[in-house]
Amino acid sequence: MVKNNTYQQEHLLVQDLIQKKKEAFDYLYNNYSNALFGVINRIVMSDEIANDVLQECFVKIWNGIGAYQPEKGSLFTWMLNLCRNRAIDEIRSKAYKNETQNQNIEDYVIKLDENNFVESSIDHIGLKKVVATLKPAYKELIDKVYFEGFTQEETAKELGIPLGTVKTRLRSAIQQLRAVIK
Amino acid sequence: MNIEEYIASGIVETYALGLCSPQEAAELEKLCAQHPSLKAAVIDAQQALENYAALHERKPAASVKANLDAMLDFAEPPIESKKIRLFNPYTVAAAILLMSSVALNVLLYVRLQHSNSELLAALSRNQQMADNLKGNQVKLSDLNTQLSVLTNPEYNKILLKGTPQTPSSLVSVFWNKNSTEVFVSVNNLPKPAVGKQYQLWAIVGGKPQDAGLLPLDEVAALIQMKSFGEADAFAITLEDAGGAESPTLSQLCVIGNVSG
To answer: Which of A23, A173, B97, B246, CA to CA, is 20 to 30 A from A107?
Structure first.
């Protein structure tokens, strides 16, 4: 993620978050809320639920920042995993199933693309090109695991392919995504 | 363990996707600390997924930020700003005024207490002096009376002298024949025994008549007694307290004839 000039180094941001500084929270929200909301939205497929889940996740991030361990990965990765896990819990909850049982997921994906006007700090065009070059089977794999919370075993069973193939294809897909960063 | 083979096994991607078992994750994190190449591979995979996630960016509702601003517990503004506020001119002025006022109040209170006690002392002294003055006025009035007796030529002074039993006793009687007033001045008489009292007698035509009792505790120099127009002599006897109808001659203390 490209950051504004307020926090050049992530550990300074974390330090101010631990000290509960308002400006650190504002910076965190301004820089990460779009990405986190996008992921939650992609998982729960509902703006309303996604807003609620995002709000809940920011409370968890704010209160749990002391548990973040920088040696295990970036702050963004920590927040992404927190939001992803919370959103996946949501779609597995009974309330979610009742609320969305009549919604057609295909329709929603189309609506999502139309609404996607957010200005991004990421090289979306380059990344989109890479994603476009991914074999549909690889993209489906990543989405199943990353956005729908399937385990590799569940994915293998669902798609009717061997577990070893799932692992190989996931690795290959991520390596292709990595290539665009370098 | 060959670290390159370990990286190539796909464990890094599995870890980045959050699909490792806790044991696998703990092992990988431990190895990351020893092998920079493994750590770099993990960061690369995480960044790849960060970017893939960010590809789905969308703007959340504005209410989310507003709700969070209202519900999160932000730190108080830095203490420095409070210090600055503490030393603004109005605060300083108010503090000085308050302290001055308190000091002035204390001073005035102490002075008031002091004045009150002084006033009480003065009132007490005043009362004492008034009492003294009253006493002095009574004494002065007595002395004036006595002086007028002593300086009045109409008064006849009769010395009552002691008997052989009481040779040192001496009493003076001042008698004004015209006004009939009689005064006694005790020059020397023994203190009467308890239950006893001196009584003055006027001898008129050879018969003693009661002229009054000498007060037991009188300190005045001149004591006014009963009045007589006629008398041949005056005498004092020691009687039971309260006096007697007629003198007990055996207890005669002093006696003196009216001269001329």
So the answer is: A173
